[in-house]
Amino acid sequence: MFLAHTATGRRWALVAGAAITSGALLTGCSGGGTSSSGGHSTDTINYALPANFTPNWILPVGTASHLNTNNSSISQSLWEPLIAYDGSTGEVGWNKNNSLATAADFAKDSKSVTITLGNRHWSDGKPITSRDVEFWFNLVKANKADWASYSPGKAPDNWTSLKIVDDTHFTITFDKAYNKQWMLANELSMIRPMPQHVWDKTGDSDAVSDLDRTPAGAKKVWKYLNSAAKNISGYATDPLWKTVSGPYTLKSFSTAGRVELTANAKYDGGGKANIRHVNLLPFTTTDAEANALRAGTVDYGYINATDLSQEESFKAKGYTVKPWAGWAITYMPYNFNNPAMGAVFKQLYARQAIQMSVDQTSLAKVIFNGTAVPTYGPIPQGQASDFVSPEQKKNPYPFDTAKAKQLLTSHGWTEQNGTMVCTDAGSGDDQCGAGVDKGTKFEMRVLSQSGSTVTDNMMSALQSSFSKTGIKFTIKTAPVNSVLSQSGQCKSGDPGCKWQLSFFGTAGSWYFPAYPSGDSLFQTGGGSNFGSYSNPSVDKLIAQTTTSESPAAVQEYSAALAKDLPVIWLPEPDYQVSVVKNGLDGFAQDSLANFHPAMWKWTNK
Fold first, then answer.
1. How far apart are CA 483 and CA 444, in angstroms?
2. CA distance 396 to 376
C-alpha cells in the first residue's frame, strides 16, 4: 500500500534565494500525442492538468482571477523568472539554470540589492537587459491595484527606485532595511523580465516606444497587454506571445484548456528542454483522467486519494504511484462583507464554533485516505519547519460540536428546527454581537470547486458536522476559475458580494513561496485577501515578519492567526497522488506546486 508523507518525514529547506511566485492559488477530455511505451525514448509527453483547473492566462503578471498555478507554470516555461526558486531537483533552492539573474548582492545596510543578469537573449535574438526588468517594474508600479500579488506597503510600494547600472546590472533601493530572506523569497522573486522592445505599445499596429516610463503610458500599455491576454484563442497566433526567454514556445492553446508547448530552438539558458513536445491535457473530472491513464494516453497524471487501493493495477500498466507534497495551506475564506452573514463572521466566538465543528483528523484519514494533514493556522504543517508556532501545532480549537453549540447558545443563539437563530441581539458578552440582527439564522453557503469526488465528499462531511452544531451549510459547485472569479474582494452593497464562503483547494488553497509570510493573504487590503479580513494587530505582526531576521516574528504571526481564525482551516492534502509512466525521469515534484516540463526526460529503464 502506498503511504502518504508525514510531518516528521520531511523537512523544509529554506535556502537564501527567491521563490518562484509570491504565492499561488490552485485553481479537464484527454488529448492525443505520442506517449512512452516500455520505457523507450520519445520526444513527446502527455501531462494531465488537475480536473477543472483550466489554464486561462498567459501574461506573466497575474490578476486576482487568474492565479491558477497552472497558469504560472506555463508562463514560466515561456518567460523565465528573474530568480527561479523551486524544488524540482529534490531540495528547495535557487534554480539558476532557469533564472535570468546570476547574482543578487545586498548592501551591508540591507536597504538595497544589485542584481546581475546572465548573458541571455530573447527568442528573436535581442539581448535580455536591465531595460526589460525596468519595463516590468514600471507596469506593476503604475497598475499595482490590479496586480494580484500586491499588498499595500509591500512591493512595489517599498521599492523606492530601480536604477539601471548597465545592460546586465540594476539596483533596487528599499524604503528601509528588510529581512533579506523575505525580500528575496517573497518580493524579488516576483520580478518577471518582459520583452520591452515588443510589448511597450498600446495597439497591435503601434510602434514600440518608451511609454512605460510615465505612469499614464504604463497604464495604457497594461490595458493593452491585459486585453490581449483575455483572447485565449489567439495565444498561439498573436505575435505578442512569440518573443520568449524560456525553454519552450507556445504551439497551441485552446479555450477548453489544452496547451501544446514545443522546445524553444533559440533558448540559451541552462535549463534547456529535454522533451521537445509537451501536451498539457485538461479534464473535467478526476475519474475521466484516471480512465485516460488506464488507456495509456497520459504519461504523467494522478488519481484520487480514495483510489490508492488501485495502486497495483497502475503498476501493472507500467506506472509508478507517488505523492506530490506541497508547501501550502488549505482553507475556506469568509466574506466578512457579505450583507447576510458578514456580521456573524466578524464575531470571533462564531468563527470558533465553526472551526470546532470541523473534524480535521477524520477528514484527513477518511476523505483523503491519509494523504492529508490537519492545518490549524497560516503556516504549512505538512512539512516540518521552524515557522510553525506551538499554539498552531497544538490546535487551539479541537473538534467538539457539543462545545461549539454551547458557545453559540451562550451568545444569544437558540436552536429552532435544527438551525441556530439569533434571539438576543446586541453587543453584550452574552449576545449575538454587533450588527447581528434578531432573527438571523446561522445559515452558511459555500461556492465550491466542481469535478472532484474528494471535494464533494469533504463538503458532505462538513455539512453533517455543522448540522450537529446547529449550523445550516449549503453547497453550490462550479469550476475553479468560476469560483475564483465569483469570490473576490467586495463591499457590502456590491452586486458581487453575495458569496459567503468559497473553496478552491482540494489540492491546496494557497501555495507559498519559500518564506510563508501572510502579506498577500491576511494583511488588510492584501491582493489575495479574498474575504477582506482585517485586524490591525495582525497587520503589525505581518510587517514584523518582513523586517525581522528572527524566526520568532513568523511564529508570533502563526500563533495570532491560529487563534483569530481569518478563514476556516481545513486539512492540507498532497498536491496530488501522481501516477507517472516508468522511464519518465530527471525531476523531483516541486513542493511549491509548479511543474517544470524542461526537466522531464525519457530514459531507458
1. 16
2. 8
